[in-house]
Write a structure and sequence with these properties.
The protein is 62% helix and 9% strand. It is an alpha+beta fold. The strands form 2 sheets. Strands 3-4-5-6 form a 4-stranded antiparallel beta sheet, with helices on both faces. Helix 4 runs antiparallel to helix 5, helix 5 packs parallel to helix 13 and helix 12 runs antiparallel to helix 13.
């Protein structure tokens, strides 16, 4: 049994009441004690926040709840990475809970299943892959009106799948993520590609390989155009610019975008936390095992 469960409500209330103290040393000791109780104490802290009329205490409780939730999020992200990051939606949902801790995985899944259903209604399996992609483009960008968030390109919301699904606006990797999740449910071999400054998609199966720019309404292009893009940036070609990346790579790139968004807004505390999440995904497997 965990320590928080052993404490009575009276003892917990007494502990939380010490947050009213003016002595910084007392506050630090109390906060350390509360954090040591773990995430089980969050519902109680939330109850105390609602019943408190002291704004200073409320702020301290908010910070404690965030700290506990963030610790739990990092643990879940570590587990997701360690298990191979097989479920892309789970990784994106975990990132989403950084900003919206009450968001349920099932809610995101339900919204994406609705998009899949719209695509499935018009989908044909017996036609050329390029024509299949054109059908998917038509559903996502014409019928459902998903599109580039050019007005607020650096908004943190672009890294939050729930916001992207609600507004139907996103940055390149957000739109690509929606596209991948729907395409793979349709059994299409469509994957993310980590190009510099632009995240795109590739259809890759057997002799068929071509590229898709979800930020430009699903524009289809060839390997030659990737060559030209790399050359224009004065970079040397690397395999990663042409081949599918992993779900962990996608989640890491989402986090890099989120860190940049908060940096531009001057939220340096959030930049630090997002980088902690990014460090988890960028550790190599041997470090994770040690």
């Amino acid at each position: 049994m965990n320590e928080a469960e052993n404490l009575t409500n009276k003892e917990l209330k007494a502990l939380v009441s010490l947050l009213e103290d003016d002595d910084q040393e007392v506050i630090e000791h109390v906060e350390g004690r509360i954090k040591s109780l773990g995430t089980h104490i969050i519902p109680y802290l939330e109850f105390e926040w609602e019943s408190s009329f002291n704004p200073t205490v409320q702020k301290r409780i908010e910070e404690l709840v965030h700290s506990l939730q963030f610790q739990l999020l990092k643990e879940k992200l570590t587990n997701w990475k360690a298990s191979g990051g097989e479920d892309l939606l789970e990784g994106l949902w975990l990132i989403n809970t950084y900003q919206y801790p009450d968001l349920e995985y099932a809610d995101l899944k339900k919204e994406l299943e609705q998009i899949y259903y719209e695509a499935w209604m018009e989908f044909k399996t017996e036609i050329h892959p390029v024509d299949q992609v054109k059908i998917l483009n038509s559903v996502i960008f014409n019928k459902l009106k998903f599109g580039a968030n050019t007005k607020n390109f650096h908004s943190p919301g672009n890294s939050m799948m729930s916001v992207v699904l609600q507004t139907k606006k996103g940055n390149p990797i957000a739109l690509c993520s929606v596209y991948i999740l729907v395409a793979q449910k349709l059994k299409l071999p469509i994957f993310g590609v980590n190009l510099p400054n632009l995240f795109v998609l590739t259809y890759k199966q057997g002799e068929h390989q071509f590229y898709i720019n979800a930020f430009n309404r699903g524009l289809i292009f060839s390997r030659k155009e990737v060559d030209d893009y790399i050359a224009n940036l004065k970079l040397s070609p690397k395999p990663q610019y042409y081949e599918p990346c992993t779900n962990v790579d996608i989640a890491a790139r989402v986090l890099r975008n989120l860190a940049l968004s908060h940096e531009k807004l001057g939220n340096m505390e959030k930049v630090s936390e997002v980088r902690q999440m990014l460090d988890i995904l960028e550790q190599n497997d041997s470090e994770l095992e040690s």
